[in-house]
Amino acid sequence: MHGHNEISSSSGGSSPTSLIDPSVDSDDGSATTDEYCPDDPREFRRHVSFFSPSVLAEVDPSGFRPTSPSFCCVLTDVDKHLQRMVLLLPAFSAAATAPRADALRQWLAGFDVGWVLDMDDRRSLPRREVGRRVRAWAQALSTMGRVFRHRHREVRNPVNEAAAAELAALGQLAAASAGAMLRLAGSIVALGSSLSKLLAALDVHSPVSEAYPGLARMFSWAPSHAVSAASDAALAGLVDASRRCVRDLRTFIRAPQYPWRMPQGGVVHPCVGFWMGYLRCMLRNRVSLYFVLAGDGDSDTDSPPTTPLAPDKGSLVTELISCLEAVLEEQSAALAFPGLRHIFMLNNTSAILRRAVRSDLSMPLPPSWVLAREERMEGYIKGYLQMSWGPVVARLDG
After folding, report:
1. What does each C-alpha distance from 76 to 38, 67, 208, 380 come to in angstroms?
2. How many separate domains does the chain show?
3. Does 234 lie in the same domain as 313?
4. 344 closest CA partner among 296, 377, 302, 301
5. Predicted pLDDT at 312
6. Looking at the domain assignment, is residue 67 inside a domain?
7. What proportions of the chain, in percent to the nearest 5, are helix, strand and coil?
8. What pLDDT band is residue 216 in, cutting at 50, 70 and 90?
9. Region annotation Disordered: residue ranges (predicted)?
10. How many Å apart are CA 238 and CA 23, to the nearest integer?
11. Of these four, 69, 98, 266, 364, which has the most CB atoms within 10 Å of its CB?
């Protein structure tokens, strides 16, 4: 029934990705890899002479040339990153004399995330750049993990002094990289409560919870290791920040801070498309959202929770949609004619129902949710007929 009850509806609105999808072309903090990509093969041999002869046979020095401006800064090819790694690893060896900071910046810049070294908890991350930074960061962390796993498998056999030295340098590079990548988590936690912050916190929590335990197992980092402890603290901070944002979601839905005008003619309100899309984005990290909703929020000592969290994501989605429906009911009072108000609520309820059942939002919703909306739509139809045609029919009967 909900598939064909809408009358003169239009979805309107803006996608929730517009909150975190800025069109920013500049990339501060990026650097080239030219100084670590020598043209002379003899210079290349000098860089990698620290390692075993098998390393020299694997890398073609002719493949290293200064990166041209037209070439994409993100080197998605794992082999390219492995070759860059061979040049940078000597800076992380026990006998290294050169500072590691420059080598680390060059390593991260190859993944287009050199800007993480310029971030800290006290420096605010521009809100309009949150989405772009998080996407680049997640892609870099995933590719970086594959590169470390690939090189770790190659180096550990055969076991000799050269391999042990390279494994130690590889572990130092991994630790430095992982520690630097966690700076984004701190900057997101430092942001004020907002819709974009919640999505960003969930999008960062998921890769950290997946990648960092794997790195710890790979390099035998104990729980007391600096990176392990920092990742645990980052995850806890992201969960706590997400809980604060979840508590504010109902306030955000009711806040008149969005430039939406009440549509005329009973068509679908633009906020319906926005909020239903936002809820779908929120559910794309279900495991992270589970951790957010699993706690009671008592760790937030600065601002004790006034609104309890939902017991699960199904209850949360149900409550937020109910809040949206209540706002629409209040907005319908602005329409002049009572019959038009029923048309407005019929079309908006149909739009909410259609967007829910045709997406992954239907998974956490209880079975009775759909039936309740269908019955509500029947009530709107009857109300419209009674308010609009009841007086006319009564006169005809007379």
Report:
1. 21, 14, 20, 54
2. 2
3. no
4. 377
5. 63
6. no
7. 65, 0, 35
8. very high
9. 1-40
10. 25
11. 266
* DSSP single-letter state for residue 253: H
pLDDT in tens, 358-393: 998 888 888 899 999 999 999 999 998 888 777 777
Residue 321 near residue 249, CB atoms below 8 Å: no
The residue segments making up the domain with residue 206 are: 72-251
Indicate whether 58 pLDDT > 50. no
CB atoms within 10 A of CB 282: 26
- Judged on CB neighbours under 10 Å (0-12, 13-18, 19+), 71 is exposed
Closest CA to 151 of 249, 52, 265: 52
Backbone angles phi, psi at 310, to 5 degrees: -70, 150
The mean pLDDT of 156-179, rounded to a whole number, is: 88
What is the total residue count of the chain?
A: 398
| CB-CB contact of 253 with 324 (8 Å) | yes
**How many other C-beta atoms are found inside a 10 Å radius of the C-beta of residue 286?**
14
In a domain? residue 300: no
% of residues, the chain, pLDDT over 90: 46
Residue 323: both structure tokens together: 């809040």
